Amino acid sequence: MNTTTATSDNMLFCDYYKQWISVYKEGAIRTVTMKKYDMAYQWLVKLIPELAIGNMDRIAYQKLLNDYAAEHERQTTMDFHHHLKCAILDAVDEGLIPRDPTRKAIIKGKQPRDKKPKFLNQYELHKLLDDLNLSQDINMDWLILLIAKTGMRFSEALALTPKDFDLSRQVLSVSKTWDYKGNGGFALTKNQSSVRKIPLDWQTIIQFAGLIKDLPEDKPIFVGNKKIYNSTVNDLLARHCKRAGIPIISVHGLRHTHASLLLFAGVSVASVARRLGHSNISTTQKTYIHIIQELESKDIDIIMRSLSNLS
């Protein structure tokens, strides 16, 4: 590494950021997260290829965010800001940037596109499951069913092996993921909280007991010789939704559906967080705030009725 260049005020900011990624992030974060930092670097090369690190002030930074926001939604711009901020604060600590240029940054962005529905209600989920082709052999429809029943992430479901099913205790062990975005193979879970055991209903246990009984113990049950794409399963799910006459959702929407139904059924946020493998309960609260607020409104009615009975 050229330490003279690294400490020079004339060093390009995009070069500093690339070096910072290499030193602080490479090998310390998941591949999918690393790709987001690499993408942020590509945008720096595109938007501020000639900006020296010593010239990164509040105006230059705000202009960078504004130029990025012209082509992205506000949330994506916020993510871009977060991917840059840590590197910039380190540069401030090193004396390469005089003052924090990210202070009071204003996040803008294009109007968000119409989003697909994130989840189905219970009636719609029943219609979807009725349309599945649950054959005697493992297929992608079984994957759709299992994600709907467990709330697993797509990568977690792809990594399941027969050994992960504890049929006698009716639990499913999640301890790894499948690298479907890369070259395949087992990979680490998103975080330590993602390593968990998910209780299964007896019907699902009986169904999968028959499906996996003759399969190799350590081989993923949903992955064959061909590479599996998230888009392929999303297309299959979309066809089922159309036939069932229900809103089209994504595979990740099945995870949201699972969590939403549990919350509406009265399951605590803490239990839902553990089942989903969230690192903390605030993630669950933030993701499902609209449902929690709706349930709180119902709770107020219950509270008022209970209190009125005391008089």
UniProtKB/TrEMBL annotation:
Keywords: DNA recombination, DNA-binding
Gene3D superfamilies: 1.10.150.130, Intergrase catalytic core
Presence of the UniProt keyword DNA-binding in the record: yes
CDD domains (alphabetical): INT_ICEBs1_C_like (cd01189)
SUPFAM superfamilies, A to Z: DNA breaking-rejoining enzymes
Pfam families: Phage_integrase
Single Gene Ontology MF annotation: DNA binding
Signal peptide range in chain numbering: none
InterPro entries found in the cross-reference section: DNA_brk_join_enz (IPR011010), Integrase-like_cat_sf (IPR013762), Integrase_catalytic (IPR002104), Integrase_recombinase_N (IPR010998), Tyrosine_recombinase_XerCD (IPR050090)
Stated family: Belongs to the 'phage' integrase family.
This protein's name: Phage integrase family protein
Organism: Butyrivibrio fibrisolvens
